[in-house]
Amino acid sequence: METTRNYRVEFTLLVALAASAGFFGYLGYGLLDLPVEDASFSADQAMVYVEKQMSFGPRITGTREHREMGDWMVEELNHNGWDVLIQPFRPLPEVEARNFIAFRGSGPVIILGAHYDTRIYSDSDPDPDNRDKPVPGANDGASGVAVLLELARTLDVANTNHTICLAFFDAEDNGRIPGWDWILGSSHFVEHLDSMEQCRSPRYTVIVDMIGDADQQILWEPNSDRGLTEAIWRVAGQLGYGEWFSLARGTALIDDHTPFIEAGFTAIDIIDFTYPYWHTVEDTVDKLGVESFERVGATLEVWLESGAPGP
Ligand SMILES: [Zn+2]
After folding, report:
1. Which of 311, 132, 302, 101 has the alpha carbon at shortest distance from 199?
2. Domain that holds residue 82
3. What is the pLDDT averaged over residues 173-181?
4. How far is the CA of 114 from the centre of ligand 1 (A)?
5. From the CA of 120, how far away is ligand 1's center (Å)?
């Protein structure tokens, strides 16, 4: 009995010490690096997830490579303890596509989303001969998925006090190609959100897209909710990443956050649209930086495990 009580006192002291260290670190009183050390997100593992996606080849909606990559993703999510809903749809009458929605936890819903398809054509390539080739999609596609998969592996969901829905959207990236449009997967998802018991009525939706550029510069995407952007950028600043997360106005974009905003939800797009290799054959792994993944992954992990503070 006595031993147990002593142990309990010591344990309580330790918890109190840890909590105050965390508190001061969080407010930025000289212990700025503490929360990063607490974050278990591994940027190296996120890079492994990028390489694995790239090993399938371009992930063009409806192709065998794309289907195999999707199957692998479901296995990986199941392996890490997540239930996965598969939402099939047809972006074109002859093309089969699938959204994947992994979910865990309880409480208000937070959706983290990324698109896993890659664009059919590299039509922004400076060399006209490359413009009918597929986009390799190391940054545009694989980087956002890698962040979500690594969060699936490391996030302490119970500590978030939320239901976490990881949405892997298909058919985002074929706009301005005959027969196609942008954001088909996320549009389909939002249209059917009411029937998806696990993820409906999200408190917040955060899309992660093109975050892996070694020369990272994440700006406020002006269609994104300003208050939620500030709340997440504040966490990035507390982690020492203020140099890479700017509240300056970036380019307004249609991305997977758009259907959520149009449906009246609070949503943002974490995106670095200053990437010079966007929709070119040069969107390859050598353009990425592991620290870029660290900054986005640790920010999201700490934000979520702090209970996802809002505006
Ligand atoms: Zn794209």
Report:
1. 101
2. 40-305
3. 95
4. 11
5. 10
